[in-house]
Amino acid sequence: MNVLTVTLNPALDREILVENFSINEFHRVKNPSYSVMDPGGKGVNVSVILAGLGVRNVAMGFLGGNIGKVVEERMRLISDLITTGFVHVEEETRENIAIVDPLGDTITEINSSGPLIKPDDLRMFLRRFEVALSRVRHVVISGSIPRGVDNDICKTLCKKVTDAGKLAFAEGIGPAFEMAVDAGVITVARPDLRSRKLIFGESLVDLNDYIKAAKKIIEKGAKLAILSYAIEGDVIATKDGVWLFKTRGHIDRSHLLGTGDAFMAGVVHSMIEDEKDCFLAAKRGMSAAVAEAEYISKELISIKDIDEHIDSFDVRELE
Predict the structure, then answer these.
(1) Contact 111, 51 (CB under 8 A)
(2) pLDDT tier for residue 295 given thresholds of 50, 70 and 90
(3) CA-CA distance, 130 to 149, in Å (whole number)?
(4) Which domains does the chain have, with CATH numbers?
């Protein structure tokens, strides 16, 4: 087993393709293939993409009710490289809905909050996490924090990882993520900037704001910082500098679903092979994201896809 992914608040993702979508209007899905259900949540997505890259991994977190059973069953069907170790709770796992309009070049996402996690559930998870951690070297902790779990959970988990001399990859937003960054326990940090361009209490408006935030993450102890900048670019920082990765061609907004998780999976896959070359890991992460962006739906990409897209974006040194 190479990788452990932690998704504390998984989901059943429902992706619906609606051409010329608009609010307050009646819409009919034209084709059954335009309505898809997949296991979701950022860490779960990383697990699935890693499996497509041939990486055996274990996925953990909390699942509940009939929806939780569907999520777990579908994960097992996707690949036998994924082992599930979820703690099952009483309340239902959340559903996320994405309405994709390829003609209008929009994607509208509606995410629910998820189940309440009780203290006994959390204690069970932490015991399972300790066991799983002893068997892997790379740990991805990604996504939102469910109700009933304190904001220090990301810091707690990442500290266990780094104290064991292993690599912690984290993506999140708000106090939980920032506490872990401040504690210096994240190896690769990717703020989730989809809903708001805000980190450390500062709004990200222009490129200089992104550079400042990326450098701060590195100063706090991360080896690699990845900040999504606009649709077609990412600001990348390591101890050696700051760069802007920008695609050469236009990427439709409707094709963005899953690209961030593909980026993280590409980084993890690269660092399994060479964990010291953070710049290469960022390049392979960007390549994975560009490859994923060729599809409207979430699709499994291959190592060949990553290799073929490694020169499909420009790299500009910023500092």
Answers:
(1) no
(2) confident
(3) 18
(4) 3-317 (3.40.1190.20)
